[in-house]
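Dear colleague,

As promised, here are the two records you asked about, laid out in our usual form so they can be pasted straight into your sheet.

NAME FIELD: protein one
SEQUENCE, THEN STRUCTURE:
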Amino acid sequence: MITLEEIEEFLVPKNEVNILGTRSHSKASEIYVDVSFTYPREKYNWEGSVPIHYRRTGIFANTAQE
């Protein structure tokens, strides 16, 4: 399973994406990374969740590159 450290190392630019944590729903086989995206030019911040394991759509990110 991919670690948060591996994901953070792959992010470019690092100052525009902050990883807040992970959460999972074991019964549904889903894992999400909670993130905060910063858009400096627009002075806007978006917080949400990005699925990294989501069986219903076939998303199975096992490496930072994926």
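NAME FIELD: protein two
SEQUENCE, THEN STRUCTURE:
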Amino acid sequence: MATTSKGKTGTAKSEAAAKAEVDGLVEVVGVWSHLACADEPANPSVTKQLRAFDKACAVAARAGLDPRYRHLANSPATLTRPDTHFDLVRPGIAVYGLSPVVGRRFGLRPAMTLKARLAMVKRVPAGAGVSYGLTWTAPRPSTLGLVPLGYGDGLPRHASNGAPVRVGGERRTIVGRICMDQCVVNLEDDQAAAGDEVVLFGPGTDGEPTADDWADAAGTINYEIVTRLGARIPRRYVDSER
């Protein structure tokens, strides 16, 4: 049951829920709502919503409801607003180790790393165009690497000509448009070969890009980067205790 309704409407709904519970039709186990701007901790709407939620809980209590759980806090509120915690909190992106608040880390360590291996490496002359639309042209002789991941796997196409990767210990950039099944990285003058590991993003502790870096390149948020990866990408779950 969720409500921030005011006045008679909220009371009527709570009374209807209480009656349905007495009649054995439902069991009201929780009252919850969701914060719209908790990723901006100073936003006055957070406190406004908290007060509205307190009132909604009071309305439910007056109607005779005694839910076991009251929950309001999402990831940012869990980390920044203890007054919103109530009986449960609902961390989402924080479970991935990604910060829900721009510019703050909270000691979180990203849990996901996305890797691939170069499918092909090719030396091209100055002036060679890359990918659909030829949106990138080699300014000088360069080594390019083909990465077998694309927007069909969940890479954001908006990150074309800008997303960072790490190959051979060096940060390099995806050039040209990201295709459905592949993308191209400019290796400049690096020595590289098919089969070399490419780290698209990870925790950042070894100098690799992060999901936040990809989000910046695509003009989006880190949530989208990690949740859009498709089923075509094999998963390997690593026990961090080992």
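A couple of things worth noting about protein two: The chain has two domains: 7-96, 114-227. The helical segments are 7-22, 44-62, 75-80, 211-218, 222-227.

Best,
R.
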